[in-house]
Amino acid sequence: MITVDINEAAELLRQHDNILIIMHRSPDGDTIGSAYALCAALRMLGKNADTVCADDIPQKYDYITSKLPHIPFEPQYIVSTDIAGEQLFGEELAHYAAVTDLCIDHHGSNTGFARYGIVDASAGACTQIISKVISALGVTPDKFIADAVFTGISTDTGCFKYSNATAESYRIAADMLDFGADGATINRVMFDTKSRARIELERLVLDSVRFYENDRIAVIFITAAMLAQTGADDGDTEGIAGIPRRIEGVKAGITIKEKESGVYRISLRTTADIDAAAVCRVFDGGGHKAAAGCTLCGDADDVCSRIVAETAKQL
Amino acid sequence: MITVDINEAAELLRQHDNILIIMHRSPDGDTIGSAYALCAALRMLGKNADTVCADDIPQKYDYITSKLPHIPFEPQYIVSTDIAGEQLFGEELAHYAAVTDLCIDHHGSNTGFARYGIVDASAGACTQIISKVISALGVTPDKFIADAVFTGISTDTGCFKYSNATAESYRIAADMLDFGADGATINRVMFDTKSRARIELERLVLDSVRFYENDRIAVIFITAAMLAQTGADDGDTEGIAGIPRRIEGVKAGITIKEKESGVYRISLRTTADIDAAAVCRVFDGGGHKAAAGCTLCGDADDVCSRIVAETAKQL
């Protein structure tokens, strides 16, 4: 991959037309905000541009997706936003990975699958990079672009609660408010609105909480029976893994989610002193220092004992 | 009250020494952040300055209060921060209301009790005004001041979820990060950390949820038995009134909290189309359009029926 800077990325986009922008599978606010903001900016320059994702986009992003209808054209230039590696295109769009012309991303782990790429790991959200590319394209953001860019920053920083929320994240967010973004509403919709199924699920999950090691480890369970009972879908389980670590005094929060009978997906969230990725690597998983995951087989109590024991070694 | 601007307020502070800075009763992050940031700045100028509050400061603000010990001196100049009216000094400090020399506040409803005052209702937090006064004093914020100013912005905007979070709020927050504020940690401690008692209480409260009017009204109960069972104190119930309105589709969230046997404090939180204050005025209560309260006597089911019926009229 040939590394380009903001101006070079803008120049590449300026030189091309019929641009297809690809989001990663299991789309989140940052890949959606990035793709839609860039798409809107390119259309403002008179170009054919569109967005595509292998998976359905969750309904809560309707305020973005409903305002930029798809248009038909033969793609001639392929751009990826917030995609760190080939496997994140999703099965349906996997064939685009090898022919991506320009990759715009903020993951330090980016595999360099594209022809040209701009990867800035210091950006809290990919939309921060997108906002600079849009500026370099000479486009002044309208409310739509401002909302989309703001959405990426808000969602990828956990409403400014993660350490990737830098001064630049706040300044770009401020600029987007000036361009009309409804930041307060976006933060509320993304972080303060829960479906009834989610409320019911949280209730059951809180019923299941177990504490270990003098309350420094908290474990919650999400079982197939809970999902069936509440009617909760995958969207409703988003962020639940953050719940146990939020309990005062808890250093490691473990979420054990039943994938199928005897197969459990483990999410581990830790405070600064515990390396979550190191724990999960023991079970062939991985991730970041404060958030990692792995898959374990067995019965639920046995799975719980094994992950708790390994986590306890780090205390 | 003689209105002054930022530079005039700074000049008044420069001309005086032995400055006592008063916080409002039931102190929150904004009055605490304002008083402590200003106090630290004045001490950096070599002045005697201290802070005082009629009520105890909650433990979660220890990262501010523990770093600026009190010092003894005879107060000669009285400053209030984030205090909208005389009654908010609290009983113990009520005598200061009539002799306040300088009032720094962001409540449009400020009663003008002081000799000089700077009241900027466009500021999302009082610490935004404080940060400008500190700058006009020629003081460069250190990490302590930056954390205190950031805390005010974060807490008074509900972690940037209320509409008072303006572009300026974000820009001053960004400046504070540059001066060393640990914004992500402050946001997590203020909004993402829950005591075990609080977690237990939320579980019981969610068990109690009732829906009315096609799920547009949600009611939760906080009973004395729940508080006893969980060991939760008043601090643990903070913000619980926000829970029912967060449920998708709910237009009015009602919290019924048992004060004593047969006496219930009602908190009503509504979306834009329902006037909470109008509902609560019917029961001799009051408040704002989206958040109001009143007190009702009777048995719990009866109290619930009456407040739900009155709220339903507004749907």
Question: How many helical stretches of chain A?
Answer: 12
Q: How many β-strands of chain A, per DSSP? A: 12
| Distance between the ends of chain A | 41 Å
Major sheet description of chain A: 6 strands, parallel
Short summary:
Two copies of one chain form a homodimer. In chain A, 37% of the residues lie in helices and 18% in strands.
Structural topology:
The structure is a homodimer of 315-residue chains.
Chain A: E1 2-3, H1 6-15, E2 19-22, H2 29-44, E3 49-52, H3 62-65, E4 77-81, E5 102-105, E6 116-119, H4 126-136, H5 143-156, H6 167-178, H7 183-191, H8 196-207, E7 210-212, E8 217-222, H9 224-230, H10 234-237, E9 252-260, E10 263-270, H11 276-281, E11 286-287, E12 291-297, H12 300-312
Parallel strand pairs in A: 1-6, 2-3, 2-4, 4-5, 5-6, 8-9
Antiparallel strand pairs in A: 7-8, 9-10, 10-12, 11-12
Helix pairs in contact in A: 1-4, 2-4, 2-5, 4-5, 5-6, 5-7
Q: What are the main properties of this structure?
A:
homodimer, 315 residues, alpha/beta, inorganic pyrophosphatase (n-terminal core), Diaminopimelate Epimerase, Chain A, domain 1, 2 domains, 6-stranded parallel beta sheet, 6-stranded mixed beta sheet, 12 strands
